[in-house]
Amino acid sequence: MARFSYFLHPVFPQLRCPLLAIAMGLACVVMGQSKFTVNGRMKVESGDMSNTRVVVYKNGVKERTLTNSITKFSLDLDLNSNYIVSFEKDGYVSKKISFNTKVPSDQVSGPFTPFDFAVSIFKQYDETNMVVFNQPVGLIRFEPSLGDFDYDTDYTRSIQSQLQAAQKEVEQKQKAEAQEELVNAKTKAAAEAEARKQAEQAAKDEQARVSAAKKEEAIRAAEQARQEAEARKAAERAALEARKPAPKPEQPPPTAPKAKPTPPEPKPERPIPTPPRSPEPGILANAVVGQDTRRATVPVVKEEAPPADLARTGGTDTVRPHQDLLDEDVVRHEELVVEPNKVVTIVKHEKAGGVTEYRKVFHKWGGTFYFKNGEPCSQLAYDTEARAEQLAGATPGGR
Questions:
Q1: Contact criterion met (CB below 8 Å) for 392 and 279
Q2: pTM above 0.70, yes or no
Q3: For residue 347, what are the β-bridge partners?
Q4: How far apart are CA 376 and CA 171, in angstroms?
Q5: Second label for 62, Cα 20 to 30 Å away, from 154, 200, 218, 258?
Q6: Is the dihedral of CA 374, 379, 385, 388 positive or negative?
């Protein structure tokens, strides 16, 4: 008959009686039996089976140790011996079961029913009285009234109260431990959730940083490429310019030598002069008899009379003297300034009242401008007042 117990709630022999007849019926198949077989099962509360062991002591001497597949195991015990089977695991309370296999001589051949049992072990808690477990939690012996092996009920009753007290204390510890584990699990879950959240945020931040860095690097690379392209273009332009032949330097037109003014000859005293005749607009090299004895020191090239002179002379080449210029003696200076892009004719009239300056500016691009004392004037005014033939009594270059 099978019997199971975790030794806190043992199965008493009364439960076996109805099946005794069945056990006796097996005698025909187990005649000559000299062993007592026990089938055990081991359980670890709030733990696993790692590092568990079953140690078998025979008559006070360690006989063997089981470490593999001990959730279920079988032992063949010799008759007429005392066995202690200890169930052990580091950090857990060990439990022991005692097997007394002594039988009457007339019962040695049996038959004996295999004895099934189960043992559970639990954690060792500090400040918990586990002295009761220093002795076996169960005793199995031959029961003459049954003719088979069963629990010693008297022994079980003697330690029952101690086992119950220890069990109650262990349950309280287990409950407190479960509550603590629940709190720890919640705390751990919250911490893990927070860690995941921070990790996700850190991953997002890192992704944003990497993305920004990539954009910045792309902008920098584009700017560098642009600068390099511009540098290449500039180098190509410079190389192209270097291959071109150098332009010949522009030769400035020769400047006309400035004629040094001839100091005027002293004017002889004379009676009040009569108005001079209009000079020929050609070369004033010789003085006219009976007129002012001054003479020109440089030839005057004859040119086409301007419209103003033709108007005054009635269409002839003879220019009438400007009446205002004949009122007093005038010294005329003329200077030609040649520059790369223009030619400037400067005429100055000196008289007792001051100096009057006339300028004619001819640009190479074709434009001609006239000025009197720095202010723009018309060509007619320039031709009327500044030309040499208008000054019949003037002394060129001075008096």
A1: yes
A2: no
A3: 334, 358
A4: 125
A5: 154
A6: positive
Distance from chain centroid for Cα 127: 59
- Domains within the chain, CATH numbers bracketed: 13-175 (2.60.40.10), 259-399 (no CATH)
What is the helix (H) or strand (E) element at residue 53, kind and residue range?
strand 52-58
Query: Would you give the distance in Å from CA 249 to the centre of its chain?
Result: 57
Q: How far apart are CA 56 and CA 96, in angstroms?
A: 10
Sign of the dihedral through C-alpha 199, 200, 205, 210: positive
Using the predicted structure, report yes or no on whether residue 111 has a pLDDT greater than 60.
Answer: yes
- For residue 397, which amino acid is it? G
Q: Are 86 and 57 in contact (CB under 8 A)?
A: yes
> What pLDDT does residue 175 have?
87
With 0-12 / 13-18 / 19 or more C-beta atoms within 10 angstroms meaning exposed / middle / buried, residue 369 is middle
What does the pLDDT look like over 334-363, one tens digit per residue?
999 999 999 999 999 988 778 999 999 999
The pair of three-digit structure tokens given for residue 322, joined into one six-digit string: 């400007």
Using DSSP's 3-state secondary structure scheme, residue 290 falls into: coil
Q: Is 173 helix (H, G, I), strand (E, B) or coil?
A: helix
Tokens representing 31? 């005649």
Report the SS3 class of residue 60: coil
- Cα(2)–Cα(193) distance, integer angstroms: 50
**DSSP letter string over 246-258?**
PPPPPPPPPPPPP
CB 102 within 8 Å of CB 142:
yes
DSSP three-state, residue 227: helix
The one-letter amino acid at 245: P
